[in-house]
TrEMBL record:
It comes from the Bacteria. GO terms for molecular function: DNA binding. It holds the Pfam family DeoRC. It comes from Streptomyces doudnae. The keyword Iron-sulfur does not apply. Residues 3-58 form the HTH deoR-type domain. InterPro entries: ArsR-like_HTH (IPR011991), Carb_Metab_HTH_regulators (IPR050313), DeoR-like_C (IPR014036), DeoR_HTH (IPR001034), NagB/RpiA_transferase-like (IPR037171), Tscrpt_reg_HTH_DeoR_CS (IPR018356), Tscrpt_reg_HTH_GntR (IPR000524), WH-like_DNA-bd_sf (IPR036388). SMART domains: DeoRC (SM01134), HTH_DEOR (SM00420), HTH_GNTR (SM00345). This is DeoR/GlpR family DNA-binding transcription regulator. Keywords: DNA-binding, Transcription, Transcription regulation.
């Protein structure tokens, strides 16, 4: 069995059944305890589980929106302010799901813009702002994370174009790959990338490397990364080699 498949089965077992012992996972997957231990080390490094004595417990990366919204607010606001300054009046902006995109929406009040989103919190934030033409994408509702997903969302995006795409992420690997914890969101993010002229990744310091087992895109699909702190040298090198501008919020570009 390939390692990637084992990892999927381990996470599925932990999320459905709770904490599990190495011996139980070994028997269930038909591999040695040593192999399971190596898998658990890798998955813990990726932020997908926590090893405990004799086994592991899953880390639920897909936290409800209300919980995530209260975390690192100052950092997200710094990123949002920098990102908002990139946009000129009269342009179109596509905002991803997530709490940093929501903080960016708060920075857009009073502007003359078109905002496209599948983020219900962004929609609620901007619905009464008469200067903003607001386009809400269709799709299936993810109640806990206040977003719309699925083939309807993706189909809507194929019919639209935006000057700017602002993406969120759960993690950025040293090779510059953008990751997500929720597989169902990945096709929507990819459709957003295709719908925009300039793709900007909003990623606070905790997202390097962050979490996520599903790859959204490589660094070649990004134009700018806006963060709140210096990026580790390996990741920064990977991004810059792909032609990505790395902007630290609050700092003047040299």
């Amino acid at each position: 069995m390939l390692a990637e498949r084992r990892h999927q089965l381990i996470l599925r077992a932990l999320r459905s059944g709770g904490p599990a012992a190495v011996t139980d996972l070994s028997e269930e997957l038909g591999v040695s305890p040593a192999t399971i231990r190596r898998d658990l080390v890798k998955l813990e490094e990726d932020g997908l589980l926590t090893r405990v004595h004799g086994g592991a417990v899953a880390d639920d990366g897909d936290q409800p929106f209300a919980e995530v919204a209260e975390v690192r607010v100052a950092e997200k606001d710094a990123i949002a302010e920098h990102a908002a300054a990139l946009v000129r009046d009269g342009q179109s902006v596509l905002l991803d799901i997530g709490t940093t995109a929501y903080r960016l929406a708060r920075q857009l009040h009073g502007r003359r813009l078109t905002v496209i989103t599948s983020n219900l919190v962004v929609y609620e934030e901007l619905a009464d702002d008469e200067g903003i033409e607001l386009v809400l994408l269709g799709g299936m509702l993810r109640r806990e994370y206040r977003s719309l997903v699925g083939f309807l969302t993706e189909d809507n995006l194929r019919q639209l174009h935006a000057d700017w795409v602002f993406l969120g992420t759960s993690g950025v690997r040293p090779g510059g790959e953008v990751m997500d914890t929720t597989v169902v969101e990945v096709p929507v993010k990819r459709a957003m990338i295709k719908a925009g002229d300039t793709v900007v990744l909003l990623a606070d310091q905790a997202k390097f490397p962050g979490t996520g087992m599903a790859k959204v895109c490589g660094p070649e699909d990004l134009d700018v990364v806006v963060t709140n702190a210096p990026v580790d040298p390996a990741t920064r090198s990977s991004l810059e080699e792909a032609g990505v501008e790395v902007a630290v919020a609050g700092r003047v570009k040299a």
